[in-house]
Amino acid sequence: MTDVQFQSGKDFAVAMDECDPLRDYRERFLLPKHAGGKCVYLCGHSLGLQPKAAAAYIQQELKDWAQLGVEAHFRARNPWMPYHRLLTEQTAALVGAKPVEVVVMNSLTVNLHLMMVSFYRPTPGRHKILIERGAFPSDQYAVKSQIHFHGFDPATSLIELTPLPGESCLRDEQIESLIERSGDEIALILLGGVNYATGQAFDMAGITRAGHARGCVVGFDLAHAAGNLHLRLHEWDPDFAVWCSYKYLNGGPGCVAGCFVHERHARSWDLPRFAGWWGHDEASRFQMGPSFRAMTGADGWQLSNPSIVSMAVLRASMDIFHEASIERLRRKSVLLTSYLEFLLNQRISSSFSIVTPQEKERRGSQLSIRILRHGQALCERLAGEGILGDWREPDTFRVAPVPLYNSSQDVFRFAERFTAEID
Fold first, then answer.
1. Per-residue pLDDT at 3 exceeds 80
2. For a designed S-S bond to 152, which of 157, 293, 300, 416 qualifies (C-beta 3.0 to 4.6 A apart)?
């Protein structure tokens, strides 16, 4: 499927959609409308679309709340007490983990702080955190605040990976070379699985191997990777990972997030952690005792009982992911993104360039287009036509052909209008 010889005309896009084995999944999502038709929505890297089934999933919980009140914790159709476990098997399959290694809880940045409480343990000789320059601002804020919290200074305790002069993305050898040189000083390596601005996907397995070889803890922010890349977290062996669920996972704005803690830490009772009662051993949780006893695995990092309504929406989407499978979705993602790149490259222009890596293993469902002049105005003109991407200052237009609900015709329409509008 990824060896297709692309062609320029619309008929080719139509033919691609007709032979797409995943095309029917598009009908299970609500696409925004424009001028009586469906938008070209290429913004799933920012906010995924609503599954049509989400309303029914929410309505079931509202019905049980109305009819049972507090008893719904144990007597609802889907009892609320263990509700998060309805997502455990599917989440584990999605990120390539064992069920004991994953939990759906909190928000991404809360989970990131909880992980750093346990896994960022700086000492005078090993206190540095390695991130990529241009990491999502929330990660930068969280990391710097943790460094301050431990009495260190980001000016000396934060290492930022920077692309070589004239380049937009990091090279694998750059990352591994820096880890080799400075590993003895690095307490934590924390990178995005996919950089939100450039769309670059990192070699998480290689980074983890390099970091562990130098005695570093390794974690990943998978906000732009979960539901996008084919992840194998257990096999790749990072210590932890966190992600949100409102982008590629279509859980809705502010949806409950996810967390991975490798199985080797499942019974690390000596690790410091910020405790909450939902992470306490289930068998004795309602005895309301004064001493905290953590559950085994990622569940032991939970704080509070989660939002049932938020998880209900996520279940609607995760059922679709489980049915479609991340393996098949990744194959279509590679095809759509390569097709978009092909169409854009038909227009030779000094006005824009694609900064996302060309190699399929180094990117997900995203191309970041650098526009030299009037890029935001162009983005707004396209939005006025019902073609939605995402503008990021100072010069980047991010577009994401998401395989669950985007089509080859979406990609063709975007490329046609974009290349017509570019100066």
1. no
2. 157
